[in-house]
Amino acid sequence: xxxxxxxxxxxxxxxxxxxxxxxxxxxxxxxxxxxxxxxxxxxxxxxxxxxxxxxxxxxxxxxxxxxxxxxxxxxxxxxxxxxxxxxxxxxxxxxxxxxxxxxxxxxxxxxxxxxxxxxxxxxxxxxxxxxxxxxxxxxxxxxxxxxxxxxxxxx
Length: 155
Hints:
The chain has helices at residues 16-31, 50-79, 92-102, 122-127, 148-154; strands at 6-10, 34-41, 84-89, 106-113, 139-143. The chain is of the alpha/beta class.
């Protein structure tokens, strides 16, 4: 069993998420910790017919679960432990804050930063700004431009 140190990753479709994932896995391995993966499904825009909205929601959840299970294999190989998986529906920032508040085992949030000209990304901007006071865990920001070798060297 891993120690009580749990590194939470927000699984999105950004390239920088891969850097955060590798960093968290390597840190979990070196500290005998565990990785947790959170995928947030944003509510469907189409709400005219309940049955269509429900179908869209179910398909989005199924896709999220499939993605997390694929990543879980990689996390297990890199960290040495099976990850904890969370799927939530709502606004990503709010759901992230809720998961951290509800799960006392989470000890570190690891986010990948976009290195482009638009800034680090909306989640990092919000969480290092006015929402920082709502965080009960440290936030580690990993530059999304780091290569696997660079991440391995610093972890």
